[in-house]
Amino acid sequence: SDWLLLSGTITSRTPASFARTLAENPQVSTVVVTQVDGSIDGAATIRMGDRIRGMGLNTHLLSDSVVDSGGVDLFLAGRRRTMAPGARLGVHSWRNGYREGRSYPRGAPEHEMTRSYVQRMLGSDDFYWFTLQAAPSDGLHVMTPAEIARYGLVTPG
User: What does the alpha-carbon distance between residue 39 and residue 12 come to, in Å, rounded to a whole number?
Assistant: First the structure.
């Protein structure tokens, strides 16, 4: 198949196994994100996303995909991003130690890794700032179709 199914939690070990799987399956053109509850390593997520984009792979969500937090960041990496009706995208702020991401001023260096990644993937960092306000780190906001359209998460056509 030209689909690679991705599920689970992204850890520091995930990028290496992901790279290995892609190398062993050169026919893969689409990464299908099925059930990803998030990431315990933001830098690992961004490395995977940069690889997906660098290889020109597409991303897709199935009608029963439930993708939250860092999983959404991975979805953004697709050259073409498509989702079946029923797929769910959940977002929230990040937290480091004792502080919520939204409590840092806009210019703070703490924002830069993920903000610049979102900018590379979507051409704008608006979606990054939206996620900080959408829900606290221990909450979850399920995106509406209007929000998905507003932030350009699905590619046109």
Answer: 9
Cβ neighbours for 46, distance < 8 A, ≥ 6 positions apart: 73, 113, 114, 117
Q: Strands 58-68, 81-83: parallel, antiparallel or unpaired by DSSP?
A: parallel
The confidence score (pLDDT) of residue 103 equals: 95
Instruction: Show the tokens assigned to 60.
Output: 């897709």
Distance CA 52, CA 139 (A): 28
Q: And the tokens for 116?
A: 């610049």
* Structure tokens belonging to residue 64: 């029963």
Pairwise CA distance, residues 82 & 64, whole Å: 13
- Measured N-to-C along each axis, helices 42-54 and 14-24 cross at an angle, to the nearest 10 degrees, of 20
With beta carbons less than 8 A apart as the criterion, state whether 51 and 19 touch.
yes
What digits encode the pLDDT tens for the residues 17-30?
A: 999 999 999 999 99
Structure token digits, residue 33: 């994100």
Quickly state the pLDDT bin for 98 (edges 50, 70, 90).
Answer: confident
At 114, is the pLDDT very low, low, confident or very high (cuts 50, 70, 90)?
Answer: very high
* Separation of alpha carbons 90 and 128, rounded Å: 13
Cβ contact 77:121 at 8 Å: yes
